[in-house]
Protein 1
Amino acid sequence: MRATLVFGVVLALGACGGFDEAEVARRGAAALMPFKTELKQTLIGALKEGPDAAIDACAVKAPEIARRASHDGVKVGRASKKLRNPGNQAMPWVEPFLDGIDAPRVVDLGDGRAGYLEPIRVEALCTTCHGAAIGEPIAGRIKERYPLDQAVGYAEGDFRGVFWVELDDVR
Ligand code: HEC
């Protein structure tokens, strides 16, 4: 009886968030889809052109792609605990998830806003620039441009960080 009561109260509080979690997850995933696809295609294309183009693709094009994928109360981006660019510092609501998540998450940001997160896993392709042994000339170019680089030493399958989405007006 008591357990049922407690469970009922938790459910009621959950509902007080005032939005439909499944709908937020659906909108979040839809917002990330073009960002992830374009990022990957740009990176693969740039890697064929050589190390400078590839590093530029990450440094210059990634933020541009994020801006383009953000619109009408929807903002997307990437964050990590081990940053290459200190400018990619996570928003406070994202920070608790940077130690690792296994599946997408929905977060209540209050005021009718919600966050959505997906884990970023390291693929073989990523270790070219984020692995334990980065070849030249890429290693040198990265050191030059990012003297504070921490985003190295990753292996395929490692948790690298998160894709995040902020959604306004989820009421
Ligand atoms: C050609 C080299 C290169 C490759 C390949 C590469 N990255 Fe990066 N990555 C960079 C650079 C350079 C930055 C810094 C971008 C900036 O200045 O915002 C970066 C930044 C990031 C960030 C943002 C957080 C931070 O550390 O600043 C994430 C997340 C990330 N990379 C994940 C990946 C993943 C996942 C892959 C594989 C799909 C990948 N990277 C492949 C060079 C690369």
Note: Residues 3-16 have pLDDT under 50 and may be disordered.
Protein 2
Amino acid sequence: MSGVTDSPFRRLVKRCSGDSVGLLVSEFISIEGLTRKIMRSQIRMMFHPEERPVSIQIFGSDADLMAEAAKIVEDSGAEMVDINCGCPAPKVVKRGGGAGLLQNLPRLENILEKTVSAVSIPVTVKIRNGWCSESLNAMETLKIVEGSGAQSLAVHGRTRIQLYRGEADWNIIGELASEASIPIIGSGDVLTAADARGRFEQTGCSGVMIGRGAITNPWIFRQIVDEMEGREAFDPTWREKIDAIEAYRGMLLDFYPEKVAPGRLKMMLSRLIKGIPGAADIRRDCMRTHDPFEMLELLTAHCDRFGILDMDSAGITERLRRREFPVPSSAQAA
Ligand SMILES: Cc1cc2nc3c(=O)[nH]c(=O)nc-3n(C[C@H](O)[C@H](O)[C@H](O)COP(=O)(O)O)c2cc1C
């Protein structure tokens, strides 16, 4: 996910979910940018060995440049290269890239043929159901993808026009899965382990791709494997969450300039603390400081004060329901 799944985030997911994560995929990278000399030298920085197996996603609309960019990805040591045919952003589709390729399948075919023959690592493709509800051409796209030698197709069950509105249509994903000779990976609105199991059962797809669900819950992949294997889904305590956030802080400080890391850490904290007792207080306190070490000290002290360090989310929800927590300081002051 652009703007979200940078290398520290992907490593956080790997730390939280371990080998339950089948494959991590990078944010999309423009083929124009990537083929410029400066970006070539930076690609090694784009993923960390801990992320393996990792796929680098690229986007654009020029077949020769796509093939050249895929070769750069291969040379970087990534296990796979993925071609984005799903991005709905106007600045991408206007130039024929992202979901724009769904409106020009001959161009997509040419891109895939050139790219597949340029590299020996697997080339995979990510699409949406179609451009709009009147042009649901995922099945036609599948045939082109299969014919080109690309090795899997991920499908976000919305159209380009829908952006992220409405619900993803998994019926189309099921139809593709029953027709395809290559793995079909479904994407859209999988927020819990039970959602994932339901989608596997409904569609017979080979894999489920998680986007937004991982932003607030990097443990989701582990929970899905627990669910699929009939175990109770892992539910981290706040002590375990804080340990993971501490590791993430280290990754951010290694990866980003000193000025950038605190903002990224604040974003993560603000997502994870949703729903804990006194969340508004701790969010406000963390937002006030720019020191990433102080942020975690504040959070640990807060969790300790509420006695939730050794509680998981189920325990917290139950105690919230029973109104067992002390009144937060903001409410006392009011
Ligand atoms: C902020 C954001 C950025 C995204 N960036 C990408 C991207 O770079 N490449 C891509 O293939 N999909 C991208 N997506 C789409 C997701 O991969 C996924 O298909 C979609 O969000 C539906 O799945 P979800 O409900 O699990 O998030 C992005 C989605 C979001 C919300």
Note: The chain has 17 helices and eight strands.
